[in-house]
Amino acid sequence: MKIETRLKLNYLISLSVIIILLIVLVWIYRMMIKAEENEDLAADIRKNALERIMFRDEYLMTNVERARAQFISKTKTVDNLLTRALHNFTKTSDKALCEEIQKSFDITNTIFSRIVNIRAKDSNLRRGSIASPEGEQRLIGQLILKAYDLNGKIARLNDSAELTATNVREALVLLLLCFISLMVISNIYNSVSIGNLLGKRVKMISEGTTIIGAGNLGYRIAVSGDDELSILARQTNDMAAQLQNSYAALEQEIGYRESANRELEAFSYSVSHDLRTPLRAINGFSAAVIEDYADKLDDEGKRLLNVINDNAKKMGHLIDDLLAFSRIGRQELKKQEIDMHVLFNSAAQNFIYTVSERVFHLDIKPMLAAIGDPVLITQVIINLLSNAIKFSEPKDSIDIEIGCSPEEHENIYYVKDHGVGFDMQFADNLFGVFQRLHSQDQFEGTGVGLALSQRIIHRHGGRMWAEGIVNEGAIFYFTLPKSRNAE
Amino acid sequence: MWCTNVPSMAFSLLVSVLSGRCPPGVKRAIAFFPLIVFLSAFSTGCNQPQTQTGPPEKITIAYSTLPHTTVFHIAFLKGFLSAEGLEVKANPFPFGKLALDALLEGKADMATQADTPVMFAITGGKKIYIIAQIASSSRSEAIVARKDRGIATPYDLKGKKIGVSLGTANDFFMDSFLTTHGISRNEVKIVNMTLGEMADAIIKGRVDAVSTWVPFIQQVENRLGNKGITFYDEAIFHEPLCLTASQEFVKHHPEAVKKVLRALVRAEKFINENPEESRRLVSEFIKMDRTSVDQIFNLFDYKVILDQTLLVSLEDQAKWAIKNKLTRARTIPNFIDFIYTDALKSVKSDAVRLIR
User: Which residues of B touch A146 (CB under 8 A)?
Assistant: First the structure.
């Protein structure tokens, strides 16, 4: 059952209980009103019956006509009340009691009439017989006896009416308690049941999503029921299944690409390697021709042979760089903690002698340690320093600044020069293989160095980028993972 | 408090609801409340007879084999007495007076009879207690007369021969009947006879009328057929049927008295709820034909009580007995001293309406 349906059902049950409660309350209230009316009626009968006895006794003692008339008047009152009681009391036992009271009441009237008749020496007494005083006394005795009987019955009716009224009032309280208990039990049950269901489902989904989120895309949440959270769990399972399929497809794609890369690198390597032999032949033979046939060649011939020889050497450099570039992709990284200050410093030392005739100013800021392959990172540093020196040559002095700034998980290292710089719109071309922003005549190089450096940094999980302004200089940045000791 | 108030309230509510006038749906709705069901079940448990822990208490009760004492018959037949832990030896007698004689002779611990023999016993100095009234009637006595002897109205009895069992309730009824109709005892010829002789006496014409009790009234009426005329007078007569015990017994066995009364109160309830079955049981028990039982049954009001009517009735009869020298007593005793109310008060307090 859906949670929404459960909640609606809960609401309907509560509403039904309230409606039933109201109906029963109205019904009980009506019973209570009736019971209280009967209670008042019984009390009224009792009161009037007692007053009637007082008039009776007054008449029997004084023989005053006024007392007799009042007795008769009170008798009519009681009679009317009894008629009402016969109609109003509906409980079988009360009705029977009302009938008994009416009967006893009639008997007392009969006896009283006979006493009155005796006293009046009524002519209705056939044959002229007159009751003796003893006869009257006997009737008075019976009148008192019947009056006690009547009074006792009226008292019973009164007690019964009071008891009924009390019972109805108590029943009202009891019913209220019952309904309140029922509502509380119902609400507790529903709350506990819905709470348990929600708790169970949420826990199941939470555990499931945690496992799936951790990478176990094959995990499926155990789903039961048809409520909203069960639907959510099924949808989560579907999502995991989709992710699993996509992940498998991606892995397959990556596999294809890696394979293609490896093939391409192997191809590049073998091409580069295989080109070296004919190139070496060109180079060797052109040198032999110059050396052995110099006297037979004119100047133009010598010059052309030298051009062939130079270009063969250049091509050899290009092939070496290509080989190096392709090796980087396959070379195993030997990561360790690197003291970057030492690395920068020792690399810089190599250049001091090459630029000795120039003003060379190198500023190495404090460095932070990093994680990486020191051999490869050294190559990156040499490349960057070499570039910085190379592109500063047109200037009077060479000013290079090396620095570092820490980030959350990595360090940013930079090499800043004040050389010819570059136009930022060509910044993306800087790191392409054989890409050059300056002609080879202006600056030597194969255009592989930065591509190689970027590839090394990428293999370390870092980034590399550059900023530059034409004729003002350039800054090359790269990042490496922080050393754990530095944290 | 819990055992008496709440469960009885719930029970009475259930009874009134389930047997009353509410719509069936509401009945069901209310009947479903587990709390009420629980309380009513609890209540039922509280109303069970007291558990008997020791051996049954032996008690002898002398009773009359007349429908007057139906309450006792039912209590005995339905096992209400034994359920109270009593082993009752029930000794039957054709009339209550004989049952009381058995009590006075020490042959019974308790007896059932009309108030007249009780009045005579008390005015005669016997140490007995009235434990309870177990029924009452104003139509249990009547004068049956022969119309062919010129008797059409009560006044026609003057000068006639009337058969009566002297010193009994029918003697008192006849005396009251005549007196209140202006006829003195001297103006009629009274013939003393037993109840058994009355039917033959009037049929054979030895008397013109008889003053008799149920069920003999019906027997005489049936035999006279159209020739007979019956004079009842509810205005002058009230006959309580009593359960009595010797004062000595009550003093030494107050718990037994309560147990008997508890059983009789259960019988009273049973009779009111099952009148048909009660008639059948009584008819079989006292070996009276069903027609007679049916004729008599409704003449009595079967209630276990103690009220003022008993006192007034006893005093009226005592006055009559003293006046007619039917007893050696010269003054009316204080009958209230011979009524034991404690037991009934403890069993059913609202049944005692006697002002002490």
Answer: 235, 238, 309
Segment A36-52, tens digit of pLDDT:
999 999 999 999 999 99
Architecture of domain B60-137+239-353: 3-Layer(aba) Sandwich (3.40)
**Range(s) of the domain holding residue A63:** 3-193
**Does B141-231 match B60-137+239-353 at the fold level?**
yes
| pTM to 2 decimal places | 0.61
Q: Taking a C-beta distance cutoff of 8 angstroms, is the pair B196, B169 a contact?
A: no
Q: Which of A110, A134, A148 sits opposite B307 (nearest CB)?
A: A148
Residue A227's identity, in one-letter code, is D
Does A132 touch chain B if contact means CB atoms closer than 8 Å?
Answer: yes
Contact (Cβ atoms closer than 8 angstroms) between residue B266 and residue B77: no
* Among A residues 217-246, those touching chain B with beta carbons less than 8 Å apart: none
Which CATH code for domain B141-231?
Answer: 3.40.190.10
**What strand order describes the sheet that includes B239-246?**
B86-93, B57-64, B110-114, B239-246, B128-137
Nearest CA in chain B to A31: B22
Identify whether B215 is preceded by a cis peptide bond (ω within 30 of 0). yes
pLDDT tens digits, B232-253: 998 898 999 999 999 999 999 9
Residues of B in contact with A175 (CB under 8 A): 30, 33
In A, residues 264-323, which contact B (CB 8 Å cutoff)?
A: none
Measure in Å the smallest separation between the Cα of B245 and chain A Cα atoms: 24
**Annotated domain spans of chain B:** 6-46, 60-137+239-353, 141-231
